[in-house]
User: What shape does this take?
Amino acid sequence: MHNATQVREQGLQAIAAGQAIIALDGLTDTDSAAVATLLAWQRAAQKTKVTVVFTLMPTGLHSLVALYGLTELLAA
Assistant: This one.
């Protein structure tokens, strides 16, 4: 959560530059801020007609995504 804003902005810049695959294996702490970041990236990708794919999602984040009912939207 301490660097969620910075990570969110980096991802938004990458998506704006055309990056469609985002590897999540660098995440060490997962909480609702991480889920919110993925949703922001997904919205940004949809606006630019990019299909973003999240890969290497940590188990904890995958569990949160499932808990919030977002598995299909944020499939990895």
